[in-house]
Design goal:
Elements lengths: L6 E13 L6 E14 L4 E5 L6 H8 L7 E6 L2 E2 L10 E4 L13 H10 L5 H14 L16 H13 L5 E5 L7 H18 L2 E6 L2 H7 L2 E6 L2 E7 H7 L3 H8 L3 H6 L39 E3 L5 E3 L4
Parallel strand pairs: 3-8, 3-9, 6-7, 7-8
Antiparallel strand pairs: 1-2, 1-4, 4-5, 9-10, 10-12, 11-12
Helix pairs in contact: 2-3, 2-4, 3-4, 4-5
The chain binds iron/sulfur cluster.
């Protein structure tokens, strides 16, 4: 793709210092490890992986809530030095809509807050809040209510309204339906898809559920233990996943998880990130592991058609 990326991460890592025991010295935990990703204007990019793989840490880096330990980030061709460069242009929808809204604040005030902070007030602000409410299928009169007066699905609509009010270029959604009842998940997913198609923000959609990511996104990055292990179009991934971890994720999708977004059941457990295995981090769970996999970590390699995979098989 010759077009310039709207959001570009280059070799981004984030390390935390964690204690392994009461008397043990802190050890490094590489939550995100050398991730490079491009997000293009109007594109929907999914990030999928099991819980603890680093995808939420990556989301927080992308919206400027967390600084990377190393690597660089560009937005619209310019280096991002601090969060102010992204303010209002990259917005986030969190997993739990209740904790992302102030329970003592009328929802209209919460939704308008990102603009009020920048000095907008009065009738202009009220009109923008009403517009955002209508966009997510809520009545403008509901702005006077408090969060507890809404259902979980409506609260997530309010969180989406708050994210959209700045008319962002990028919407980062971190597990936006996993705290909702199965019956309302589809409504919120359809809403996000409509918003993306009709109003055009680029979408970075993060989930542990491959079925949900596949419903939302045309390109999918698969993450394992802090690293991208495969990056492909949705069709490439489902027709012929290259990486054994991607293959396992697809094989672990029973028919009911495709529709309900339940977590996949994979063989074995992810390794302790404080004691990652040598070589390929997936080798203790990989049916195709070879001797080289236990010693050398594979690099991300370009396959036919521009897809990427991190595996010694290629
Ligand atoms: Fe499996 Fe080896 Fe590929 Fe890792 S590098 S996914 S262990 S085949």
């Amino acid at each position: 793709m010759n077009e310039r990326a709207l959001l570009r991460l280059t070799d981004v890592s984030r390390t935390f210092r964690m204690r392994r025991g009461l008397f043990a010295p802190p050890a490094p935990l590489h939550a995100v490890n050398g991730v490079s990703l491009d997000l293009y204007r109007g594109q929907s990019l999914g990030l999928v992986g099991e819980s603890g793989c680093g995808k939420s840490t990556l989301a927080r880096i992308l919206v400027g809530l967390l600084a990377p330990s190393s690597g660089s980030m560009e937005f619209d061709g310019l280096p991002v030095q601090d969060r102010t460069a992204l303010y209002g242009r990259v917005q986030m929808v969190f997993q739990d809509p209740f904790s992302s809204l102030n329970p003592r604040m009328r929802v209209g005030t919460s939704v308008g807050e990102p603009l009020a902070i920048r000095g907008m007030a009065g009738a202009q602000l009220r009109e923008r809040v009403a517009e955002s409410f209508r966009l997510v299928g809520l009545a403008a009169e509901q702005m006077r209510l408090f969060p507890h007066e809404f259902s979980g699905g409506q609260r997530q609509r309010i969180a989406v309204a708050r994210a959209l009010i700045t008319r962002p270029d990028v919407l980062v959604c971190d597990e936006p339906v996993s705290a909702l009842d199965a019956s309302v998940q589809a409504q919120v997913l359809n809403l996000l898809r409509e918003v993306q198609e009709n109003f055009g923000p680029s979408l970075l959609f993060i989930s542990h559920a491959l079925a949900v990511v596949a419903f939302m996104c045309t390109r999918i990055a698969v993450m394992y233990q802090g690293r991208i292990v495969e990056l492909a179009t949705r069709d490439e991934l489902f027709q012929q996943a290259a990486h054994p971890y991607s293959q396992a994720l697809i094989e672990a999708m029973p028919s009911h998880s495709r529709t309900r977004g339940l977590p996949p059941v994979l063989p074995g457990e992810p390794p302790n990130p404080l004691h990652p295995p040598a070589g390929c981090a997936f080798h203790p769970r990989c049916a195709k592991a070879m001797p080289v996999c236990r010693e050398n970590a594979p690099e991300l390699t370009e396959l036919d058609g521009g897809r990427l995979a991190r595996c010694h098989l290629y």
